[in-house]
Amino acid sequence: MNKRSRSLCTLLLAALGLTTATAQWKSIGPVDRIVALESNSLTLKAGAAIVQVALISPSVVRVRMNPSGVFASDHSWAVLQPPSSTPHVQFLESTASYDLSTPNLRVTITRNPLRIRITDSSGTIVAEDDPANGMAWSGSEVRVWKTMPIDEHYYGLGEKAGLLDRRQTACTMWNSDIPAYTADTDPLYQSIPFFLAIRQGRAYGVFMDNSFRSSFDFGKESRNTYAFGAEAGDLNYYVFTGGNPEEILTNYTALLGRMPLPPLWSLGYQQCRWSYPTEKRVREIAEGFRSRAIPCDVIYLDIDYMDGYRIFTFNKKNFPDPTGMVRDLGAQGFKIAVIVDPGIKTDSSYSAFKTGLADNVFVHKPDGTLYTGKVWPGVCAFPDFTMEKARTWWGENFKVLVDAGIRGWWNDMNEPSVFDVPTKTIDLDVIHDSDHGKTTHAEMHNIYGMEMTRGTYDGVRRLLPGERPFVLTRASYAGGWRYSAAWTGDNVSSWEHLNLAVSICLNLSISGQPFVGSDIGGFIGHPSGELFARWLELGVFTPLMRAHSVINEVNKEPWEYGDSITSVNRRTIELRYRFLPFIYSEMERASRTGVPPMRPMIFAYPGMDSFHGVTSQFMFGDNLLVAPVLDEFERTKEVLLPPGTWYDYWTDEATNGPARIRVDAPLDRLPLFVRAGTALPTRQVVQSTAQAPIDPLTITVYPDIKNGRGRTDYYEDDGHSFAYEKGSYLRREIEQYADSSQLRVVFSRTEGSYAPASRRLAVVLKNIPERPTSVKINGVGIFPGRIPHEELQAWSYESGSVMLWMNDTRDRIEITVSLARR
Ligand code: MIG
To answer: Which tens digit of pLDDT belongs to each residue from 389-405?
Structure first.
């Protein structure tokens, strides 16, 4: 190979993120001196490099290293909350090492060479630098190698296709528009440089806060080490210790912030396609749902609603009266969502371009001239969303859309994607005048999409004060869930992609983004009715439930596959609506704790090694196991039940785990298992969340006979405002106590000031082996009978279940069901 082609090769490898293979790494050497010792941190000089280890909370360590001896400016786009209090840190110095410790952990920094080891309070190693490499650099690139125990597994890393368990894989963080990606494609649209390591039932998390192109390698490059690093900036990472995955997600999202509670309607079924091109077609689609009694809350307008792809405009011919259309569809219970792309057409008669130029909100080339690139509208300028002024300008532009009644904000192409250049994005030397100073696109690329969603969220929230915005994005970064839900981009109508949807959504969830979903049916291609039906079933338990299709492809609405599939699809969407009170409670939990609804089995049961890498089933919340059918022609499903008793949602059959069982899964059945001890809230079917409030609220109690008790939380509020922040919500604990002769269910008095309209409460008690001798509410016996009307209480017994009707009240409700046994 001659010199020229060799250097070309190096360049290509660098572009592919394979620089580690060719880089000349210089490992950090011995500590020279202490630069500073503060109450919770130690700063050291080692050769040219500077290193800081800080304990930012009793169980969270932050490490920074810069080979130049000077740290980069200490700002972050991801970390919003500085730790509320500095933990009490003990410092110990010996000839061999420095020790920083809290009651929960100890960081040992050996002096020669400088290596960092974290141990927990029992002395067990959590994570440690690899003795051979440790931290290192090559030019501006920084990296750390850590030892990789043979039985440690890695999860998360945001939007990653392929295997759920990332051990033996490597990946890159670089937001990329890759239509029709495959299991091997990397990187994809979103970058979340966070992973969870699980080993022998214990977990820790690592978040590398560096927005440059970065990469992770879990044993691909070398068998016994894993490594991560970035092309420039500080090596800057946080280690979250604590043991269980939920706690780690809670601590991680305490630092980065959490998903705001979404509007309830955004959890309804959503229908999209590229594009419903005219008002007439949009009305037809709406009519298609209502006339077939298929529930739906949201219809999307893709790029063709605009005037020549000019953002914030309407095509006057095809959408002559957007306000009227949105109003009429609103009366039928639909919300309308529209797509917005970042590229602003450089058309001197186009208002957004004119005001953008005047306000100087676009990114520039290094020579100070406007940067432009081709996207759908032709030549475009790109707003600098990293600059507050540009986000504000962007947000104000939504007024015309908000005034037309539009309520959903789909942010696309924000990697950002540029058509006419080989890099497919903005030139890396383009200048951003960011809130944290001037910098290049190389540093801002991965956060561009997130900052676009931030401008969208904040802008719409200002325009519609008191209403929760719904934003959906394709590109994002760690922390993006503060502004937006995310979907998994341009997938394909194939069974392989149905499987990929599960692992991508799970990895996104446990990387901090709880509000996720994939294009149901597959974006590119033509799904069979069976594939669409199965994908829709998975969609019931992805927080975002949206079907979509590429342009010039067959229709993919749920009624497009023949009558028998239509009725399967109708029942599947109805199932979603029945479960909305449960799904909403789980979303509220995620917004409060950072623990996502969709969880891999191993996340919920870190001690069960057989769950490593499992994606054939997952948990939704603590209490529901979802086992979607993911293969063609499959009419049964093998399910791995964790320890405890599990009820088959469809047959009520109880099975004690751990167990491997096979259940029937005809085309119209999504296998579901409810953990014994659960009180499952469901509602009546409606055609949209706007149609009617919950009435009755059904609480189905699945007794835990073995343990004798169980507890579930229920959450509800008005579903659209921020009044819950001021106490207007309803929270209630439902406890149950079971033995062979009695089942007692106690609804706590409701917490919070939210009072739903008066309604009936239906309580269904499962697994009651015989007709009860008495049923009491608050100590007063009630009569069996038919389902009574207003104000009355009654119960009935049928096929192993007691059903009880009463008025829902805010007071404590105690139900006692007694059996003759004993
Ligand atoms: O270059 O707006 O992923 O969902 O339908 C394609 C048209 C642009 C890509 C999105 C897709 C959307 C499409 N967009």
So the answer is: 999 999 999 999 999 99
